[in-house]
Amino acid sequence: MSFAQILDSVTIWVAANLPITVGGGVAIVVLTIFFLMNRKRRGFNANKFAAAAAAAATSTSSSLGEEKALNWAPPEQSYADRRETVRRDGAPVRVLLASPTFRNGVSDGFVLDRSTGGLRIAMSIAMAPGSTMQIRAVNAPDTIGLVTVIIRSCRKNTDFFEIGCEFEKTPPWNVLLLFG
């Protein structure tokens, strides 16, 4: 069978099965685009890179090469670039805060912005980063319990402290909505 005969038989089959051919072509294009976008999204794996750099540093014989490999680190990203969830501003929501570090165990504050990952709270006292506290919206029903947050940052503003908090475990959507 010659090439021309094969080409004629393929053309006849494609014409007879046009919907299958078009659907297959579209599927191939979509899968190709998905594959290319997925390759771009793959992030920089620092652990693999550090292990490879350490292995390369131990295999080199010059001490200058070892020093450069061990002292190099990838550039730091800004805080905004590292954020995984979108922060939403809104009207401040009054919340009750509970922590063993408070004098009477309970304090109050206001949620300044919120996301599915955490909250930014304005309160009158400072909190140490790494500590935990429990939080509950003042307007929450009695059936809603306290939500545990981990303090990630504490910044002094003019009259109050801005506390950056991360949820220990992301609460359900109905509880998140109570924070604004």
Describe it for me?
With 180 residues, the protein is an alpha+beta fold. Helices cover 38% and strands 27% of the residues. The chain is built from 6 helices and 6 strands, in the order αααααββββββα. The protein has a 6-stranded antiparallel beta barrel. The longest helix has 24 residues, at 18-41. The radius of gyration is 28 Å and the shape is rod-shaped. The termini are far apart.
At a glance:
By secondary structure, the chain is of the alpha+beta class.
How are the elements arranged and paired?
Elements: H1 3-16, H2 18-41, H3 46-59, H4 63-71, H5 79-82, E1 88-98, E2 106-114, E3 118-123, E4 132-137, E5 147-156, E6 161-167, H6 173-176
Antiparallel strand pairs: 1-2, 1-4, 2-3, 3-6, 4-5, 5-6
Helix count, DSSP H or I runs of 4 or more residues: 6
N to C succession of SSEs: HHHHHEEEEEEH
Describe the sheet with the most strands: 6 strands, antiparallel, barrel
Instruction: Provide the helix percentage.
Output: 25-40%
- Separation of the first and last Cα atoms: 73 Å
Q: Which outline best applies?
A: rod-shaped
Structural class: alpha+beta
Radius of gyration: 28 Å
Approximate strand percentage: 25-35%
Low-pLDDT runs of 5+ residues are: 59-66
Biggest sheet strand order reads 1-2-3-6-5-4
The number of distinct β-strands equals: 6
Mean pLDDT: 76
